[in-house]
C-alpha cells in the first residue's frame, strides 16, 4: 500500500509542477475586465494601505487604471463612467463592485508579478492537503479515492480556477475548511474554538466572492435545527461561535461596503447583477454540459454514500454537506447567469469535507484500535 501511496503522491506533485510551469507563463494583461479590476484593488492597497478599501474612481490620480484600459485597447478609457466593474453610488462616485479580499492578496506580491504567486501559493495549500489525505488513507480503496480526488483538486487550480482570480484563494480556503470540518466532527467533544475558526475561514472567503457567503448555510442549518429541537446550551454556544467567526471574517467586505456604498449592508454591485431567482432551462442545460456537473455528481454521490455509513462522524459530515449542497445548488441553478466556476466552491468544500471525514477516525475508535480491540458498536461509544 505504501507503493500505491507513493505513486499517487508523485502524480499530485507532477500535476502541481505542470500547473506551476503553465502558471509561470500566464500574462496579467489577457484582456479580461475582471482581472484588471482586481489588479486596481491591489494597486490601491499598495498605495494607501488599509485606505485602499476606498475604490472611488477619483483615486486613479496616477492613471494606473487608465493605463490598464489602454493596454487592452478599451475605447472609453478616459471616461470613468464607462469603466468596467465600476458602479455608480449615492453622491455620483464610481466604485469597484468586487469585495476587497482578492485585491488584498494580490497586493502582497510585487506589481507586475502578482497573479502567478497567488495561484502558486493557493495550489501549494491544495496540494499539501491532497498529500495529507493520501497519507491518512488506511485501506487500498481509500488510498485510490484520496489519490484520485487529490489529483483532481490540484488540476482544478488551473481549470476552471484560472477563469477568475477570486477562485484560486476560494479553493484553498474550501480545502482547509473542509479538513477542519471533518476534524471537528470526528472529535468526541466538538471544539467551540474549531467551529469558530471554520466560521472565520468561510467568512473570510466572502472577501473573495460575495456568493461565498452561501458556503456557511449548511453549517447554520446543522447547528440551528438541533437547537430548535433541544434548546441545548452547548449547541447554542457552538452556533454563536460559528456565526461570530463568519461575521469577523466578513469585516473587510462590510467595511468596504460602508466606505463605498454608504452602508455595511449595501452592495456595490449594480442593479443588473442583483436579480431575483428564476428557473431557466438554458442555464440548467449549461451546467449539465460543464465539468461542474461531474463535481456535482461526485459530491451528491459521496454524500449519499456517507449518509449510510456506520461511523457517526461520517453521517454528521454528510448531513452538513447535504444541507449546504441543497441550499447552494438551489441558488445557483435558479440564477439566470452561468459561469464555469459558480458551483465549484460548494462542490469542492463538500468533497474535501467528505473525503477527510472518510479518512479520519474518531478518538474513541483510535483508542480501541491501539489496545487491539474493536468496539461492538460505534453508537455505544460515549459522546
Automatic annotation (TrEMBL):
Transmembrane segments: 116-136, 141-158, 164-185, 192-210, 216-233, 240-259, 291-309, 316-335, 341-360
Key words of the record: Membrane, Transmembrane, Transmembrane helix
Protein name in UniProt: Glycosyltransferase RgtA/B/C/D-like domain-containing protein
Domain of life: Bacteria
Amino acid at each position: 500500500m505504501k507503493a500505491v501511496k507513493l505513486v499517487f503522491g508523485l502524480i499530485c506533485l507532477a500535476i502541481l509542477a505542470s500547473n506551476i510551469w503553465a502558471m509561470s507563463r500566464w500574462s496579467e494583461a489577457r484582456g479580461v475586465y475582471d482581472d484588471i479590476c482586481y489588479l486596481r484593488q491591489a494597486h490601491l492597497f499598495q498605495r494607501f494601505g488599509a485606505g485602499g478599501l476606498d475604490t472611488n474612481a477619483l483615486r486613479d490620480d496616477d492613471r494606473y487604471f487608465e493605463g490598464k484600459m489602454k493596454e487592452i485597447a478599451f475605447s472609453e478609457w478616459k471616461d470613468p463612467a464607462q469603466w468596467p466593474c465600476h458602479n455608480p453610488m449615492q453622491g455620483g462616485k464610481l466604485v469597484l463592485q468586487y469585495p476587497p479580499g482578492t485585491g488584498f492578496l494580490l497586493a502582497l506580491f510585487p506589481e507586475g508579478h502578482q497573479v502567478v504567486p497567488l495561484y502558486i501559493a493557493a495550489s501549494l495549500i491544495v496540494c499539501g492537503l491532497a498529500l495529507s489525505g493520501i497519507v491518512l488513507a488506511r485501506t487500498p480503496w481509500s488510498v485510490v479515492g484520496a489519490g484520485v480526488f487529490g489529483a483532481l483538486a490540484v488540476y482544478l487550480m488551473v481549470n476552471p480556477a484560472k477563469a477568475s482570480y477570486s477562485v484560486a484563494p476560494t479553493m484553498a480556503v474550501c480545502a482547509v475548511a473542509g479538513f477542519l470540518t471533518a476534524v471537528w466532527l470526528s472529535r468526541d467533544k466538538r471544539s467551540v474554538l474549531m467551529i469558530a475558526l471554520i466560521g472565520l475561514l468561510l467568512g473570510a472567503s466572502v472577501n473573495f466572492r460575495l456568493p461565498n457567503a452561501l458556503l456557511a448555510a449548511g453549517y447554520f442549518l446543522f447547528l440551528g435545527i438541533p437547537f430548535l429541537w433541544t434548546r441545548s446550551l452547548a449547541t447554542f454556544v457552538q452556533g454563536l461561535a460559528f456565526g461570530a467567526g463568519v461575521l469577523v471574517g466578513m469585516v473587510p467586505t462590510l467595511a468596504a461596503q460602508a466606505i463605498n456604498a454608504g452602508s455595511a449592508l449595501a452592495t456595490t454591485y449594480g442593479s443588473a447583477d442583483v436579480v431575483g431567482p428564476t428557473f431557466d432551462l438554458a442555464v440548467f442545460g449549461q451546467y449539465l454540459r460543464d465539468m461542474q456537473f461531474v463535481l456535482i455528481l461526485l459530491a451528491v454521490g459521496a454524500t449519499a454514500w456517507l449518509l449510510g455509513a456506520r461511523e457517526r462522524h461520517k453521517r454528521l459530515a454528510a448531513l452538513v454537506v447535504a444541507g449546504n449542497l441543497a441550499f447552494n445548488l438551489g441558488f445557483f441553478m435558479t440564477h439566470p447567469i452561468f459561469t464555469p466556476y459558480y458551483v465549484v466552491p460548494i462542490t469542492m468544500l463538500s468533497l474535501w469535507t467528505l473525503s477527510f471525514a472518510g479518512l479520519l477516525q474518531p478518538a474513541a475508535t483510535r483508542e480501541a484500535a491501539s489496545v487491539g480491540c474493536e468496539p461492538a458498536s460505534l453508537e455505544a461509544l460515549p459522546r
